[in-house]
Amino acid sequence: MKVRKLQNLIERNEIYPRGANNITRTAKQHDTLLESFFARLKDDPILDEKADESGILDDILILIQIFRYMRMILKRKKKKKSIELYNKVKKESLRKVSKLNVKYPFGDYGSYNDMLKYMRTIEFYYPHITKLVRIGKTHEGAPIEGLKIGYPIRDINKRAFWIDANIHAREWASSHTALYFINQVCIIL
Fold first, then answer.
1. Are residues 15 and 88 in the same domain?
2. What pLDDT digit, counting tens, does each position of 48-65 carry?
3. How confident is the model at residue 158 (pLDDT cuts 50, 70, 90)?
4. Does residue 85 share a domain with residue 13?
């Protein structure tokens, strides 16, 4: 479940009616929706170490953001039962997540092919917001590829900004900065 969908679900259920008779009913609906959400999250293939052999860091970070957001909402509402359920699912989910094998090491310098593979993997997991584009070739004939991010992805009438990285050989950190930025933008969208 994407962060925006989760936020909409929570925000929709945060609006409690003013009447005293409806408060209990709405609180029960809220608990049921939370339990349903956590049940779906628990069975999500992202958390299954066998389902995701690529081990994309994005999915793990989305999960962590969801947990942070849910914790904030639950603390604000002071719902003890929901917080206990949250803690149980978080503990079990993070145990599974810790077993995932992340393939792109942000701390190490990867080859150009590793970077392209990572961008292709991002495009595979987020086809509705990302598209790999070929913008030319190097003087050696290697493809120069970039990643277009946006929604809807085919809309060319919107304003855009360009982030350039990996231009000069000695600017090795710029490529990792751009990949990390891509990673973070995909999480937000």
1. yes
2. 444 444 444 445 555 666
3. confident
4. yes
